[in-house]
Amino acid sequence: MSVAPEAAADSSTCVVLGAGSWGTALAIQLARVALPTLLWGRDSTHLGELQRDRRNARYLPDAAFPEQLRIEPDLKSALQASRDVIVAVPSHALRGMLEEIAPHLLPDARVAWATKGFEVSTGLLPHQVAREVLGESVPTAVISGPTFAKEVGAGLPTAMTIAASDPGYAAELAQRFSGQNFRAYTSTDITGVEVGGAIKNVMAIGAGISDGLGFGANTRIALIARGLVEMTRLGVALGAKKETFMGLAGLGDLVLTCTDNQSRNRRFGLALASGEKVEAAQKTIGQVVEGVLAANAVRSVAQRAGVEMPICEQVYRVVYEGVAPKDAVKELMSRALKPE
Ligand SMILES: NC(=O)C1=CN([C@@H]2O[C@H](COP(=O)(O)OP(=O)(O)OC[C@H]3O[C@@H](n4cnc5c(N)ncnc54)[C@H](OP(=O)(O)O)[C@@H]3O)[C@@H](O)[C@H]2O)C=CC1
Ligand SMILES: O=C(CO)COP(=O)(O)O
């Protein structure tokens, strides 16, 4: 396999790292709007299949690759071909991925990530991890919002948020992704956008548990509305803007993930409510379930920040302490009454 020479020479080339469902969908979107796009993944056998089939049968089987999408198995070559790097690996792999690419980035490289979650061992948000690894001089951005990979792969109308401290970079990246089917909004509130993306996964587990136990629409919406309060409270304590949580990367992604079974986090919650064990439920889903790690990380981050997050706390207890989902709900309902 090799990179098409015209792709390597073109300054508009983007490289996407991570050939799971989201990396593949993002690469398809960039190629769909006619940008030369390289997709790299860590498993060369899998990449060979992508090259052969012109689709990702394992992670995104229904979406055929546009012509502008090329598979690049060599990480260094991919990074030499483009200054615009988009990282789409799970949160547990983000630091390692950034460390691996750092020595090979072009001098004017810009790095964005689509990862949702905190780093569990440190409680750091992705932009804080990136700053530790890449330093201050590399322009960085986060891509987030209500964006199921399957729907982006299918070209269905979608909106997302791109946040960067440099508004020019966010605007340029938004321009690159946007097309007739896709609209990217910009923000400078990196912390808010990242907190939204991390917390909504924990809430989606909660919503799956609630629906799986047979509770109704009232319960689901109470969870979403109070979940938004928890998310906002933590975000603001960490320096985010309150308004960000009313946008695509806050409320938008929270509602999407809590209400649709495309969400792996929601399906994980449904499985727990049906009595499945944590490991078995993760195995059945067969893809990353970020809310499992986030439930753990958020607990420590919230405790450190002195922020009360009762729904996240109960999701943590179900996932890590084996508390029965029904008992977790009872606990939430019996909390002392307070003003909204
Ligand atoms: N899917 C979606 O709809 C969306 C996902 N996201 C976020 O995107 C991130 C990635 O998730 P998603 O693509 O969905 O996950 P998937 O489970 O679909 O795929 C995970 C991908 O990451 C790869 N990977 C795992 N560990 C490493 C590593 N150490 N180095 C390099 N690659 C690695 C896997 O490789 P391998 O196959 O070899 O294991 C696989 O290609 C998550 O943070 C998620 O929350 C954000 C928006 C939408
Ligand atoms: O982040 C997502 C949609 O915005 C994907 O959600 P899940 O990881 O729960 O599938």
Topology:
Elements: H1 5-9, E1 14-17, H2 21-32, E2 37-40, H3 44-53, E3 55-56, E4 60-64, E5 69-71, H4 75-80, E6 84-87, H5 91-101, E7 110-113, H6 126-134, E8 140-144, H7 149-153, E9 158-164, H8 167-177, E10 182-187, H9 190-212, H10 217-237, H11 248-259, H12 264-273, H13 278-285, H14 290-305, H15 310-321, H16 325-333
Parallel strand pairs: 1-2, 1-6, 2-5, 6-7, 7-8, 9-10
Antiparallel strand pairs: 3-4, 8-9
Bound molecules: NADPH dihydro-nicotinamide-adenine-dinucleotide phosphate (NDP) and 1,3-dihydroxyacetonephosphate (13P).
Walk me through this protein's architecture.
The chain is α/β, with parallel strands linked by helices and 340 residues long. The protein has two domains: 175 residues, Rossmann fold (3-Layer(aba) Sandwich), CATH 3.40.50.720; 143 residues, N-(1-d-carboxylethyl)-l-norvaline Dehydrogenase, domain 2, CATH 1.10.1040.10. It is 53% helix and 13% strand. The longest helix has 23 residues. The chain is globular. Bound molecules: NADPH dihydro-nicotinamide-adenine-dinucleotide phosphate and 1,3-dihydroxyacetonephosphate. The site of 1,3-dihydroxyacetonephosphate has 13 residues, from helix 9, helix 11 and helix 12.
